[in-house]
Amino acid sequence: MQSRRRFLALGLAALAAGRNLAEDNQAVVLVTAVGDPAFALGSLQVRKLFLGFTVLHAGHALRPVRNRSDELLDKIFLQHVMTMSAETYERRLLTMTLQQGRPRPMEVHSREELVRALLGIPHSVSFAWSSDIQGVGGLQTVKVLWRP
Predict the structure, then answer these.
(1) Total domains present in the chain
(2) What rounded mean pLDDT belongs to the chain?
(3) At what angle do helices 86-100 and 43-51 cross, to 10 degrees?
């Protein structure tokens, strides 16, 4: 029952935002620069990464970049990937920062900032709508995180 309510709320939010997920067939994908070697992250590793824990790949710490360019994208990421509300996520980040000194993920607020961050910061990882990264040179999809 709870998952139906969430899905209905997301659907209504999408319609209100002028974005029909069923028509667009959007997917939320984990994305990184092409120069990084291919890797696979499990759901737990993605959650740890975006909570500030160190996640290593080929001896390098991955650097999370939170994509805040689209409110619906951020909500879907938090609810379906991080499995928590925005308030809970912010509280956890604050707790991790204050108690353990873990840094917050870098945040970007536009598609252009996202592309610059992923291409300019070694080993950076973010999430985006699949359509937003199609045709962008230098980026690769690592994993589909959510599909309507």
Answers:
(1) 1
(2) 85
(3) 60
